[in-house]
User: Fold this.
Amino acid sequence: MKTSQRPSGVEQILKFYKGSQILLALQKLTQKPMIYALARRDVPVSSNTHLKIQTDSTQWPNDLKEIQPAPDVFLSALGTTRAQAGSFAAQRAIDYDLNLSLARTAKESGIKTYVLISSAGVSSKSMFPYSKMKAELEDAVMALEIPYTVIVKPGLLVGTRKDTRLAEAILQTIAKSLGMISKTWLTDWWAQDVDVIGRAAVAAVLECSEGKRKEGVWMLGPSDILRLGKDTSG
Assistant:
């Protein structure tokens, strides 16, 4: 792993919009960093957030290059579903190809901390195309050797989301029902709320930027997500 000077704080953050919970967590930071958010549609943002609406996702790497000086941090929760994309090949073009292109551009731009929202239990040897694709993306991103590479690997996503698969919706109902009985013992180990995931991703960014982590790859599993994503506002 190549070494670099450790950043002393987060001044600029680039967020590729696919998950409002991460953006909300970023906007709540007391440091008030400059946030650049790229979205396909208009979304509510705070005064320290620069939103660019870009419907042509093939231009996103160029949009990243145009930000000067380059942000300290890059977060990507970019992804779609096969149903939304129309085919698995079209889904892969976004979930894998575009994500990797953006990660490469982030490295070329000198970004020191890269955060990818992935998924738990994926494998490059999986028989399931989606699981295999997610694992291949993780491997490709790690091979770039961005100084701080954080891969967030939640289980089933629960909470408010605009795009939910039928199978996920059924499992979410089960998770919520079990959570009413005992969230800690029956739900947290396999299903995490999207708000918690968003806070965990941002907390990981802070640990890297404040020198609390060594350079390298940091895999955040469900237990790490729950620890870092605790809501301390109340």
Q: What stands out?
A: The CA atoms of residues 112 and 201 lie 15 Å apart. The chain has a mean pLDDT of 79. The longest strand covers residues 34-39. The helical segments are 20-27, 60-65, 82-85, 88-108, 129-143, 166-186, 194-209, 222-228.
